[in-house]
Design a protein that fits this description.
Elements: H1 2-6, E1 13-18, H2 22-48, H3 50-53, H4 56-81, E2 85-89, E3 92-96, E4 102-107, E5 111-120, E6 125-133, E7 140-145, H5 150-162
Antiparallel strand pairs: 1-2, 2-3, 3-4, 5-6, 6-7
Helix pairs in contact: 2-4
Amino acid sequence: MRTRVSGLGLGAVRGDYPLMTPAVGSTLQVLRGFLLLLWIAMVFLTIFTPDQVGLNLLWTTLVVVAVYTVKFGWRLLTARLGMNRCYLLTDGVAVTNRFGRIRDSVAWSDVTGVQQTAVVGLVSGAHRMEISRNRSPQPLWFVAPGAKAPLADAVLAEGRRAGALQ
């Protein structure tokens, strides 16, 4: 995937970060959070009333382990295949779609500004970033997962390094 992104003429890859599909990613974050809360409740029920819970804690633990194993496995697979990624390049930014193809890119010389919106809730968080450009009314936008998304800081740092941002 790095060779496909490097072929854009925007320089060498300086970093790549995961992206999130807003509706699906947020929903899955919330569901994983509730599943974890359910598991914690089952642990407390087992401690206080062990005869009434029985095998339920084992099944709940297996489900939690399976869900988080699938989550981390999916994260590794999408990184390897270049799916839903933001590539910071020496001279710009490129974003891929869910199939690993380049969805959009922008050169730092065309950037007029970056708008960042953080959405943080009880069990999920994300940063929506819009990179405005000179030649197009449509901004390059993406959603970085996490309340403290490293991608948000990296985009701003790379933009300052390239001289596109103040």
